[in-house]
């Protein structure tokens, strides 16, 4: 009896995971469509991805990264031409 219950439970877990995997694929396809639209309108998709990554970061983490980037760039004699 317990093997049947465990098998049913396992099947439900696997099916749930598969549904979520399909949803994830659908979302990834939607994201590709959005980036394709942005590219068609003349936007740089690489920059959009970078902005999304930055927006996900907490403010203090982003500020620390920006400070390190500016410090390393100066050390290498590079000049950043944008306001971080």
Automatic annotation (TrEMBL):
GO MF term (any one): DNA binding
Top-rank taxon, per record: Bacteria
InterPro entries according to UniProt: GapR-like_DNA-bd
GapR-like DNA-binding domain segment(s): 6-77
Protein name: Uncharacterized protein (UPF0335 family)
